[in-house]
Target: IS110 family transposase
Amino acid sequence: MVERTSGSHHKGGSRKMAKRNTICAGIDTSKDKLDVALDGSSEELQVKNTAEGHQELVEWLKRHKVKRVGIEASGGYEQAAVAELRRQRFVVIVFQPIQVRAYATFHLQRAKNDKMDAALIAACTAAVKKIHPAPDPRLQPFAVHLTMIDQIKEDIAKLKNRLESCPDERIQKFWKEQIALLAKHRRAEFKALVAAIRKHRDLAARLDLIYSVGGSGLPTAVAILIRMPEIGQITREQAAALTGLAPYDDDSGKHVGARRIDGGRQRLRQALYTAALPASFRWNPQLMALYSRLIAAGKGHKRALVACARKLIVIINAVVARGTPWVAEPPRTASVSVT
Model:
């Protein structure tokens, strides 16, 4: 552990710390170490990114009466530290790198190193006005498992491309065997994942609600459950934005640009876009009507599918919020004739 402190004689830091009711810390993460800084203070810490280092970090934060901790997402290297901090009841905010760099740009800060980044993240943490609830910790191992299943699917696609361009029959046979083996593993892993989810009654009930929506097959329903824990607790606009399916304006002065989707959770967006094709052609009457209307209005196939994918997540969000399974059409009110 490497700790540096200036004590109470650091007047500028003391005044700034006194102005804040909530003491905030920032953590810059790398594979081997964590650099930590306090907002409004020159005190800093460096520990190893290990279980022992995390314990030292917790003790140091408690000693300085830190309540809120910000940490930058770093390819998964931050996950163990985040889990431990949340277990210790700290309020943890995980920033995307683009958020931290945008904050630095706003303050015209060009210099960059690990210690400076930790201080910058601490300032970002203190500036946050709205703090979202921490995601369900049960979903984290499911997310890792689902990513592995997705990666197997990607490997199968790569092998199929190699198979198509390979003229050698012996090598073709090898690629076919590998594809069959990976496909078998993928089916087994997905079955195990669903079984693990169904051990939790509340998660199983939520999965069934998502699965009830026409066009949301079981793989899509699992992806939404795991990769969008906010489902059913947010607005339709927020649901579209989180999935990266919300169209954004590109207007300035007299310029009126085309609206485009951007951002969001990439793997989740891919799952919804994949589901939108069969849903809008066969399984969901609402999406079928939407697709036909957009095509008739001159919209392209891909643009119509994006709109259907957005409509699909909006429907699913409403179903989960309501807590009752989806029905293709609302029940008709029985008419009573008076004679």
Observations:
- The mean pLDDT is 87.
- Residues 201-249+263-328 form one domain.
